[in-house]
Amino acid sequence: MKKFVCQICKRKYEAQYRPIHRTCGALECLEKKAMKEVEKQRKKEASKKRKEKQRFKEQDRSFWKKKAIAAFNAYIRERDKYLPCISCGVTYGQFHAGHYRPAGRNEGLRFNTYNVNKQCAQCNNVKSGNLTEYRIGLIKKYGLEKVEELEANNEIVKFDIDYYKRIAQIFKRKTEITRGFK
User: Fold this and answer.
1) Quick one: which of 19, 22, 75, 111 has the most CB atoms within 10 Å?
2) Distances (CA, A) of 86 to 34, 89, 90
3) What is the pLDDT of residues 90-149, one digit of tens each?
4) pTM score
5) Quick check: helix, strand or coil at residue 95?
6) C-beta neighbour count of 171 within 10 angstroms
7) Where do the structural domains in the chain lie, given as residue ranges?
8) Pairing of strands 116-120, 2-5
């Protein structure tokens, strides 16, 4: 007879052949082993459903739009890391990638690097962009011609999934490059 250790209760038991369930055979150990198997199967199915849902999501336009926005905003924050808030000049606190012309109304300017700059949370959220001071900061940073060009741009666009994928890839790479130089 060979000696084995129960996987559940850790007691030693003897068996002539290697047991299939690797338990001592006590009813409570067999039940616990069965419950573990059921839980393992449930987790496997849940994981499969999550992967399937993710695969479906990746075909969705809004999924790639979020990815592109996240990559773009990360690049803006990295690019302007050492600069103060474009509106008020604050150098401490939480910072956002603030849009001069709102992205919701001007989709064509959402990924325009001149339109988006480092902005403190106070100016971006509480002061609704602090646009008067933002404009002054833009003129100092880029010049009056560029600001007037932004203000004149009323292009109506609707981007497709491939565009968002490309934007996400480009700005992710740009962020990595910018981090490498500073």
Assistant:
1) 75
2) 62, 6, 8
3) 999 999 999 999 988 888 999 999 999 999 999 999 998 899 999 999 999 999 999 999
4) 0.67
5) strand
6) 25
7) 2-57, 61-181
8) unpaired
